[in-house]
Every structure is written in structure tokens, then in C-alpha cells.
Automatic annotation (TrEMBL):
Keywords: Isomerase, tRNA processing. Residues 17-30 have a biased composition (Basic and acidic residues). GO terms for biological process: mRNA pseudouridine synthesis; tRNA pseudouridine synthesis. It catalyses: a uridine in tRNA = a pseudouridine in tRNA. This is Uncharacterized protein. Belongs to the tRNA pseudouridine synthase TruA family. SUPFAM superfamilies: Pseudouridine synthase. GO terms for cellular component: nucleus. InterPro entries: PsdUridine_synth_cat_dom_sf (IPR020103), PsdUridine_synth_TruA (IPR001406), TruA/RsuA/RluB/E/F_N (IPR020094).
Length: 202
């Protein structure tokens, strides 16, 4: 007959917990910075460097751009877009991590509206998580002149620029020469549409 071995779990010793709690209190009393203990540190598998996880908050970013040489607002692989330029600038300033750059959903990125190829925006709003020390001037330093960030404002963590946008305004522009009959000969430079055609179009 095989022998049955009974394994007993060690009894809970509250003195150990108390000692650990007292050690933590003595660390604070020794002048150690309590905020340091709150920083989450992790070691990267590639470089082995010790990195501090930066605490990020939700922000709304107001920007404007000329979309003439871009394939729209939304990021698209291997094509120049407004979002790609914005993400590149944020990454260069270390406002977002490599993971945020490759997977934008990790920073809760959202846009209030999308624009198509060649379309510009006088005002556009996006929302995402950024460090509290973010600076508009530093973002603009790494952006093309045709893209500008006008302001950044802290918002609630549940804010979503797409869902909470209450209106969108679009303006469509085209040259008045487009209203001239196809068969009519004209010179485009210096052209002005006459009142009769303008009244008919209105």
C-alpha cells in the first residue's frame, strides 16, 4: 500500500505583512522620492535598456492643413497623408512610443472628420493620449509648413473627437469658368463670369 503524503499550507503570518509595510514607510522617511516608486519600469528585449513608462492623458488637438500634395487625412501605407506627418512629428518628439506609432489604437487616436485627396482643412480636431508636457511649438518644428497645430487642450479620458463632434462644415470651390458653355471660346487668365450666368447659377 502506497504511503499518502499530506501537504499542509503554511499559516498566514500577519507579522510579515506588517514588516513589509513598515519597510515601505521607512523608505519614505529616509528621503526617497515617493513618486519614483509609482513609475512603472520595463526592460526591452532588444536593447536591454531600462525605460520609464510615461503617464499620458487624453488631449484634443486643433490643426489645419493644405491637402494639395497629400492623399487625404487618414493614414494609408506608402502614401503621403496628413496623419502620417503628424505621427512622425509626435514620434520624433517622443510624445508617442513606437507601439503608438505603428498601432494608433493604443493611444486612443480618433479624428473628427476625414478629408479626401487634395482636400484642405481650415480647422480639424483629433483626440489622442499624450504626455502632460506636450508643446505645440515642438510638434510644429517637425511638421511641413502646410500643416500647423494651433492648440492642444486637455479633455476627459472618455472624449472622442469623432463621436462628440456636433457639426462639420464643408466648402466646395471651383473656378467660375466652369459655368461657361463648352463650345464658347474664352481665355482663362483674367476671366470674370458675367452677371447673367452668375444669377442663373444662384
Amino acid at each position: 500500500m502506497s504511503e499518502v503524503k499530506i501537504v499542509r499550507k503554511p499559516r498566514y503570518d500577519g507579522r510579515i505583512k506588517k514588516r513589509q509595510w513598515e519597510d515601505r514607510r521607512s523608505d519614505k522617511g529616509a528621503g526617497l522620492d515617493p513618486t519614483k516608486s509609482k513609475l512603472i519600469k520595463k526592460e526591452t528585449e532588444i536593447t536591454g535598456e531600462l525605460l520609464e513608462k510615461i503617464k499620458r492623458r487624453k488631449f484634443a488637438v486643433l490643426l489645419g492643413y493644405s491637402g494639395t500634395n497629400y492623399y487625404g487625412m487618414q493614414r494609408n501605407p506608402n502614401t503621403p497623408t496628413i496623419e502620417e506627418e503628424l505621427f512622425q512629428s509626435l514620434y520624433k518628439n517622443k510624445y508617442i512610443s513606437q507601439e503608438n506609432f505603428t498601432q494608433v489604437q493604443t493611444m486612443q487616436f480618433q479624428r473628427a472628420a476625414r478629408t479626401d485627396k487634395g482636400v484642405s482643412a481650415a480647422r480639424q480636431v483629433v483626440s489622442l493620449k499624450l504626455p502632460e508636457n506636450v508643446e505645440v511649438s515642438k510638434i510644429n518644428e517637425n511638421l511641413p509648413e502646410v500643416i500647423r497645430v494651433f492648440g492642444i487642450k486637455r479633455v476627459t479620458k472618455g472624449f472622442n473627437s469623432k463621436v462628440q463632434c456636433d457639426s462639420r462644415s464643408y466648402i466646395y470651390l471651383l473656378p467660375t469658368v466652369s459655368f461657361i458653355p463648352y463650345e464658347q471660346m474664352m481665355v482663362q487668365k483674367g476671366f470674370r463670369v458675367d452677371e447673367a450666368v452668375l444669377d442663373r447659377m444662384m
